[in-house]
Amino acid sequence: MTALKKIKKLGTAISRATLKRDWYRDAVGGMWERMGKLQFDFLRERGLRPDHYLLDVGCGSLRGGIHFIRHLEPGHYFGIDSSTELLSAGRAELKRNGLAHKRPVLARMEDFDFKSLQQTFDWAIAQSVFTHLPINSIMRCISNMEGSLAEGGRFYATFFDNPNGKLNLAPILHHCDDKTLTTFFDKDPYHYSFETFQFICQGSSLKVECLGDWGHPRDQQMMVFIKNPILHLSTG
Ligand SMILES: C[S@@+](CC[C@H](N)C(=O)[O-])C[C@H]1O[C@@H](n2cnc3c(N)ncnc32)[C@H](O)[C@@H]1O
User: Fold this and answer.
1) Domains, in order of start, for the chain
2) Atom 12 in ligand 1: which residue has the minimum CA distance?
3) Is the dihedral of CA 169, 171, 172, 174 positive or negative?
4) Nearest CA to ligand 1 atom 8
5) Distance CA 200, CA 196 (A)
6) Which of 42, 53, 72, 128 is the residue whose CA sits 20 to 30 A from 181?
7) Closest Cα to residue 129, out of 29, 202, 26?
8) Is residue 191 a contact partner of residue 172, using CB atoms and an 8 Å limit?
9) How far away, in angstroms, is 54 Cα from ligand 1 center?
10) How far is the C-alpha of 13 from the C-alpha of 15, rounded, in Å?
11) Exposed (0-12), middle (13-18) or buried (19+): which is 51, by Cβ within 10 Å?
12) What is the pTM of this model?
């Protein structure tokens, strides 16, 4: 084998190893630094303090989690995800970042059984999770969240907007900086009209507000569910 061929072979092996090493970053959508910081800055600017309790729904491999955990007091971050592999990758990322002493609670679940965490939360976030879920799963998540939010607590969630009314069945194109994405009425990635979330909250202690564009590079919009907001001062 010539020297050039050897170098090429080595190069391929290294990029394969790198791909494998970073699989858990791609698995949650890539843009590791940007999306991690975006969600953290968003909540911190709205008042997330180190002594607050945060529930990260569909935390994946801790893309946002690493930032939240660094900010919060030990034991105040709870992350749940349906993927054992992503949670393991998150634990490794935690160690690499020297944050194991922060003792986050990382739990595998797929039925949003938040009660089992035995904690009420001041804040919760589901970043890029509802975009992958059918409506009944979202309803289960929101209904269980109602029981685990503190009074005045806030649950931020991202979604792909369907601005054409809840019975528009046509796919929607989202023109992003780097590509065009298609979302669907009844398959992943899903879009929803905001009125769907208002409907879900009817008769509950949750009120939902649409916050719209929050700087997500793939056109995901932000909304917030607030528990008994009238009893508490709203800060946005
Ligand atoms: C696109 S990733 C986003 C991860 C994380 N929120 C972030 O911003 O990096 C979606 C995550 O939702 C998780 N997920 C999907 N369905 C779920 C369910 N029913 N219960 C818990 N997690 C779920 C996936 O395993 C995945 O980690």
Assistant:
1) 31-231 (3.40.50.150)
2) 58
3) positive
4) 127
5) 6
6) 42
7) 29
8) yes
9) 16
10) 6
11) exposed
12) 0.91
Taking only the tens of pLDDT, the chain with its 236 residues reads: 565 566 566 555 545 555 578 899 999 999 999 999 999 999 999 999 999 999 999 999 999 999 999 999 999 999 999 999 999 999 999 999 999 999 999 999 999 999 999 999 999 999 999 999 999 999 999 999 999 999 999 999 999 999 988 788 999 999 998 899 999 999 999 999 999 999 999 999 999 999 999 999 999 999 999 999 876 655 55
Ligand 1 binding pocket, CB closer than 6 Å = 28-29, 35, 58-60, 63-64, 80-83, 86, 110, 127-129, 132, 137
The answer to whether the beta carbons of residues 156 and 42 sit under 8 Å apart is yes
Beta bridge partners of 225: 155, 208
Give me 142's structure tokens.
Answer: 């929101």
Nearest to 124 by CA among 58, 221, 27: 58
Atom of ligand 1 nearest to the CA of 29: 1
